[in-house]
Specification:
- Helices cover 31% and strands 24% of the residues.
- The chain has 267 residues and is of the alpha/beta class.
- It has one domain: Rossmann fold.
- α3 crosses α6.
- The longest helix is centred in the C-terminal third of the chain and has 25 residues, at 241-265.
- The protein is globular.
- Residues 21-264 form the Nucleoside phosphorylase domain.
- It is an enzyme of class 2 (transferase).
């Protein structure tokens, strides 16, 4: 029996074995959303082999339960490539999500905006990404399944549903391309100018490896960024993780409204 199935059994023993409809991965400063779920909280440390991560501002637990009438799995935080140099670090959590019955994952993150019309406090639906780091979680995978098509990595139907949900909730949600830098240092002004020229609308240090892994596993994917800062050189603000955590709740309130609206639409 695979490790993901073993962990799914551990989780089901505590949270019940009803299938999970979808999973949501929460980014920096967004962990409070775990408290919105009526269900069972399981610390990552209780799940053998599960990546715990060491980033402050992440709520390191898995919550299984009901939100707006749907059974969901909320990951209170993620592990990042920059913590251990492993782009494949979120493979087990995503495989566990699949073993719990989900066919969809919505990833969220805190990001820096490259557009004046998408300022701090806004949210942005990701339409595509640029893997600027060049790293890939499927390096070393031996099966031909590693050749994952990424043309519609961010599921078009799911994106439309989230846009409709935002409109129903009267929340403005931009759309754009997200560029992944490995981190943990912030980007330089020169890197920001370069990635803008390549077509990016926001930058961050997560999500892209998870999207690749999710598509490898056959999960449908959507992703939303909360804008916590402008890219380096685009404003006078001083970039820091403390600022990220401080500004994330502004966008998180909007993001919660969109997610709740989307889940209600599934009923």
């Amino acid at each position: 029996m695979s490790k993901s199935v073993d962990l799914a059994h551990i989780i089901q023993a505590r949270a019940g074995d009803a299938p999970v409809r979808l999973g949501i991965i929460l980014g920096s400063g967004l962990g409070h959303l775990t408290g919105a779920v009526e269900g069972v909280s399981i610390p990552y440390s209780d799940l053998p082999g599960f990546p715990v991560g060491n980033v402050s501002g992440h709520d390191k637990q898995l919550v299984i339960g009901n939100l707006e009438g749907q059974r969901v799995a909320i990951f209170g935080g993620r592990s990042h490539y920059y913590e251990q140099g492993d782009a494949n670090v979120m493979r087990l959590p995503l495989a566990v999500l699949q073993a719990l019955g989900a066919d969809t994952v919505i990833a969220t993150n805190a990001a820096g905006s490259l557009r004046a019309d998408v300022p701090t406090g806004d949210i942005m639906l990701i339409t595509d990404h640029i893997n600027f780091s060049g790293l890939n979680p499927l390096i070393g995978e031996e099966s031909d399944a590693r050749f994952v098509p990424m043309t519609d990595a961010y599921d078009p139907a799911l994106r439309r549903a989230l846009l409709n949900a935002a409109a129903s909730a009267d929340v403005a949600m931009a759309q754009g391309v997200y560029a992944w830098f490995s981190g943990p240092s912030f980007e330089t002004p020169a890197e920001i100018r370069a990635i803008r020229a390549l077509g990016a609308d926001a930058v961050g240090m997560s999500t892209v490896p998870e999207v690749i892994l999710a598509r490898f596993l056959g999960l449908k994917v959507a992703a939303i960024s909360t804008i916590t800062n402008m890219g380096a050189g685009l404003s006078d603000e001083s970039l820091s993780h403390a600022q990220t955590k401080a500004m994330a709740p502004i966008g998180a309130a909007k993001l919660e409204m969109v997610l709740r609206s989307y889940l209600r639409s599934l009923s």
